[in-house]
Amino acid sequence: APSCRSSRFNVPPSALLVARPVGVCSMMRLPMQASAEGLDAAFVGVPLDTGTSNRPGARFGPRQIRAESAMVRRYNGSTGAAPFDSLRVADIGDVNVNLYNLPDSCRLIRESYQEILASGCVPLTLGGDHTITYPILQALAAKHGAVGLVHVDAHTDTGDTALGESIYHGSPFRHAVEEGLLDCGRVVQIGIRGSSYDPEPHKYCREQGFRVVPAEECWMKSLEPLMREVRAQMGDKPVYISFDIDGLDPAYAPGTGTPEIAGLTPAQ
To answer: Following CA atoms 60, 62, 67, 73 in sequence, which dihedral angle do they give, to the nearest 10 degrees?
Structure first.
């Protein structure tokens, strides 16, 4: 069968030449590598959901995303994106998390990402509940210093403790603030909505200098103007992009662990 490796870059194989069900189930059917060495970007799975408070199952996310990604082709005609023409990308498998110990999983994730970043590669993460963002940000900040954040989510994930535990899917960005991992003047949270335990649910975020864009400010409109503002705010310094599937309205993604109505649309 035709190879998905070129002389310089890896490319997703065309289904006109290689049947979609054929081969190893990797992201976009790209080659698998044991490490990030020699790559510009790498897909990495973090199959962890022991930090979730409601419906579990995100541990199966990386595997299912890879399976569905067989439908993704190498060019995007709408945006003109052609990443495989200039970047060497591969799938480097999963972090071997500890499903019985959440703090230890955070250590394992942090150490794995430190190795990936040391190679000069940009990690593209397949989660996993949002707890995983905390150790990833620790690794990023150790290399780059405090980073900007574009965070699409129904929730701000800046909680303090839950049932006496401080590490869970609702607290990664509070830890990030407390440890100086974020450049708080370059943090934007988009799509925030839903009921709250607090009469001022966004107070903490705004006190830190975050820009919070509630879902109701996104309804029935293009988000292109907002994203132009976000790009200008982020500038040319390192930025972490975090996309929680519950940022979408559950009409489009009903399987999320913590659904909130009236969210973003796929087009947005």
So the answer is: 160
Q: Token digits for 85?
A: 């023409």
> What CATH number belongs to 1-144?
3.40.800.10
Write out the binding residues for Mn(2+): 130, 153, 155, 157, 244, 246
CA dist 139 → 10, 171, 176, 178, 225 (Å): 26, 17, 11, 15, 32
Where does residue 45 fall: left (phi above 0), alpha (psi -120 to 50 degrees), or beta otherwise? beta
Q: Under CATH, which number does the domain 146-268 receive?
A: 3.40.800.10
pLDDT tens for the chain, residues 1 to 268 = 445 555 578 999 999 999 999 999 999 999 999 999 999 999 999 999 999 999 999 999 999 999 999 999 999 999 999 999 999 999 999 999 999 999 999 999 999 999 999 999 999 999 999 999 999 999 999 999 999 999 999 999 999 999 999 999 999 999 999 999 999 999 999 999 999 998 888 999 999 999 999 999 999 999 999 999 999 999 999 999 999 999 999 999 999 999 999 999 999 9
CATH 3.40.800.10 in the chain: give the residue spans: 1-144, 146-268
Q: Which residues are annotated as a binding site?
A: 130, 153, 155, 157, 244, 246
